[in-house]
């Protein structure tokens, strides 16, 4: 039986730093409001034209591949998680494959928002456990800054998110008890509209109370209209309080599920790396689980919420800082739009 282990990990964040005070140039906000509600002090924004979700993913992937002691040619499958792809279609996986000069290996794109990386890792783990692939590149990357509403109207959402990418090479191993012990995935579509970007999309507003006025023509023209940019419906929507209430229940639940599956307890966790949704959510989860500060890694203060990239960026930083060592029990957990959530337990 094959196991999968993280053989190499890397991350990339853009150079441009925007502090909370910098955002005051665009909207009515304050450093106090943002820090008190989210813990965020600053975030990175990609170069508007030169950097894309794919290019940031490539930078993270290069580091992960090198640290895994392998090469791009040895990668036999690509999984790319993002909610901010370069194109509506095709996905970023094929762009990464082309730009990195990889072989004609399969490229799968994952659309699970903040839990995208945990979902991607779980899919990769199954492929390795069955013996189908040996070296899978798993990437989480986001360029949020191109599509948020940076006016006062959009401030409750836009101040939270930042750009960046993280990647791992998941490799086949026969060392028993090492690597990914188990992964756990869940979803509940009941609140799908509570954290969402409705347009461009093909729903025509079917699931929404406020249906848009579409052009009067027999076919086509129903992805997005100029009015949507005007009235703000083209931007991501978040019912923050619903997200908060659900997240603080589902994070601990899915972590406990992973521990139970492996006959372990919260005291066995050496490092919890939660999706960096909001520092208040992470602190709530930490308190619920009774974990000390040194066993929970947070970096949202410096990067904001980078959605599918947040878990691999945080995992990589924790490892680089020596906070994760060989033999440690590491728990990854995420919750996000959908709602979708998941966890992964790893013996490092
Ligand atoms: N700066 C200043 N004032 C703001 C800002 C801002 N950036 N954003 C909103 N406000 C104002 C509002 O307009 C409102 O003003 P009013 O009282 O005059 O109407 C006031 O602040 C309070 O607004 P609320 O939306 O009620 O603020 P709340 O206390 O709920 O905090 C927040 C909003 C931070 C989003 C909170 O609901 C929260 O923490 N939710 C969790 C959601 C989250 O963190 N999601 C992360 C992304 S999703 C994920 O990763 C799973």
From TrEMBL:
Residues 108-189 form the Beta-ketoacyl-[acyl-carrier-protein] synthase III N-terminal domain. One of its GO terms (molecular function) is beta-ketoacyl-acyl-carrier-protein synthase III activity. Residues 276-280 are annotated as: ACP-binding. The active site is at 114, 275, 305. It catalyses: malonyl-[ACP] + acetyl-CoA + H(+) = 3-oxobutanoyl-[ACP] + CO2 + CoA. It is found in: Cytoplasm. The keyword Acyltransferase applies. Its EC number is 2.3.1.180. The keyword Lipid metabolism applies. Pathway: Lipid metabolism; fatty acid biosynthesis. Keywords: Acyltransferase, Cytoplasm, Fatty acid biosynthesis, Fatty acid metabolism, Lipid biosynthesis, Lipid metabolism, Multifunctional enzyme, Transferase. One of its GO terms (biological process) is fatty acid biosynthetic process. GO terms for cellular component: cytoplasm. Residues 261-348 form the Beta-ketoacyl-[acyl-carrier-protein] synthase III C-terminal domain. It holds the Pfam family ACP_syn_III_C. Catalyzes the condensation reaction of fatty acid synthesis by the addition to an acyl acceptor of two carbons from malonyl-ACP. Catalyzes the first condensation reaction which initiates fatty acid synthesis and may therefore play a role in governing the total rate of fatty acid production. Possesses both acetoacetyl-ACP synthase and acetyl transacylase activities. Its substrate specificity determines the biosynthesis of branched-chain and/or straight-chain of fatty acids. Homodimer. The last Arg residue of the ACP-binding site is essential for the weak association between ACP/AcpP and FabH. Belongs to the thiolase-like superfamily. FabH family. This is Beta-ketoacyl-[acyl-carrier-protein] synthase III. It comes from Sphingobacterium deserti.
């Amino acid at each position: 039986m094959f196991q999968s282990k993280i053989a190499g990990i890397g991350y990339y964040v853009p150079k441009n730093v925007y502090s909370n005070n910098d955002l005051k140039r665009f909207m009515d906000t304050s450093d106090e409001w943002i820090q008190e509600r989210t813990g965020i002090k600053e975030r990175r924004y990609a170069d508007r034209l030169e950097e894309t979700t794919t290019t940031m993913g490539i930078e993270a992937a290069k580091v992960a591949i090198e640290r895994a002691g392998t090469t791009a040619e040895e990668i036999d499958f690509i999984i790319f998680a993002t909610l901010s792809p370069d194109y509506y279609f095709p996905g970023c996986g094929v762009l990464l494959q082309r730009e990195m000069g990889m072989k004609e290996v399969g490229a799968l794109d994952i659309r699970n928002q903040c839990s995208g990386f945990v979902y991607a890792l779980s899919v990769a783990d199954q492929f390795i456990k069955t013996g189908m692939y040996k070296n899978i590149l798993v990437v989480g990357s986001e360029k949020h800054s191109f599509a948020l509403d940076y006016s006062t109207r959009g401030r409750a959402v836009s101040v939270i998110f930042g750009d960046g990418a993280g990647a791992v090479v998941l490799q086949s191993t026969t060392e028993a008890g090492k690597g990914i012990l188990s992964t756990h995935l869940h979803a509940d579509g009941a609140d799908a509209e509570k954290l969402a970007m409705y347009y461009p999309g093909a729903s025509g507003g079917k699931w929404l109370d406020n249906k848009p006025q579409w052009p009067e023509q027999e076919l086509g023209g129903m992805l997005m209209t100029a009015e949507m940019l005007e009235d703000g419906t083209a931007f991501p929507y978040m019912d923050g309080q619903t997200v908060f209430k659900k997240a603080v229940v589902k994070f601990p639940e899915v972590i406990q599920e992973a521990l139970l599956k492996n006959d372990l307890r919260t005291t066995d966790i050496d490092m919890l790396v939660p999706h960096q949704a909001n520092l208040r959510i992470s602190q709530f989860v930490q308190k619920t689980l009774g974990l000390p500060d040194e066993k929970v890694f947070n970096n949202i203060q410096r990067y904001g919420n980078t959605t599918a990239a947040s878990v691999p960026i945080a995992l990589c930083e924790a490892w680089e800082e020596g906070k994760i060592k060989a033999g440690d029990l590491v728990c990854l957990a995420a919750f996000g739009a959908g709602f979708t959530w998941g966890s992964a337990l790893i013996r490092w």
